[in-house]
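Appendix B, Record 12. Input sequence as logged:
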Amino acid sequence: GGGRGIGAECAFAIAKAYGCKVALLGRTALDHGSESSASREIHATIVRLAAAGVIHQYVTCDVSDRAAVASAVKYIDQTLGVVTAVLHAAGNNIPQSTKNIDPKSLRDVLTPKTAGTVNLLSALSLNRVKTFITFGSIIGQTGMRGQAAYAFANDWMNVLMLCMNWNVKLE
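Logged structural output:
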């Protein structure tokens, strides 16, 4: 997600390098008194952004929920300005053998990458977006034992991005 991990690190690096404002979306509710490691990580990210002088906002939002994404993007457009770049790093890797995958666990793994990508693209003013970066996994190309659903989710997202009518440069 946006408040921790690779998404947060990349957003921080870009904000420092280019002076842009940052909106972080994540499923984890930010509770300053929480003992959860996720909440502590997000709080640490926010502290780092503030210490670096980055104008930022953390919005609790599950990207698999279309209405929540639309609401979050509208809020960000109103508070920080129109969204012109996206780093989509949401994911939910739940390793399990193919024979044990049920519809719910499949949805839990697929939706952050698949519905999340579609919901973000649907909520944005695409004529204003200059950059839309998705964070996939090499597992989408190589596979890995117990990772069929996660491999599919990542590869689906990668194929969608390649099919978009944007100027795609591969190196």
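The chain is about 50% helix and 10% strand.
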